[in-house]
Specification:
single chain, 94 residues, two-stranded antiparallel sheet, 2 strands, 19% strand
Length: 94
């Protein structure tokens, strides 16, 4: 029963996403060349670093970070973010 509900929710999401359409800006519609069109859109959009919204994690999260050098000498950094690890409960004392 749970898998049928998940399929139904996925189908509903897929149908609602299908209706989303990109909006054209009339000020930039005069440009035929793609790069000029994109430059026009970028000039009308929000400025870099103007967004201040930060998603807060739901509860605690577990992260790991690994930094090192690859065989070619270049530095690399790799990190993972996932749900918090469950703490082991101490055995019940009776």
């Amino acid at each position: 029963m749970g898998s049928m509900r998940a399929i139904g929710v996925a189908a509903l999401i897929a149908l609602s996403v299908g209706r989303a359409r990109a909006q054209d800006n009339p000020a930039c519609a005069k440009f035929e060349e793609p790069l000029a069109y994109n430059q026009c859109l970028a000039g009308l959009g929000p400025k870099a670093h103007a967004t201040h919204a930060v998603a807060e994690p739901a509860g605690r999260v577990h992260t790991t970070l690994q930094v090192g050098r690859a065989r070619n000498g270049r530095m690399f950094a790799e990190f993972t973010v996932g749900p918090a690890r469950k703490k082991k409960r101490p055995p019940n004392e009776e």
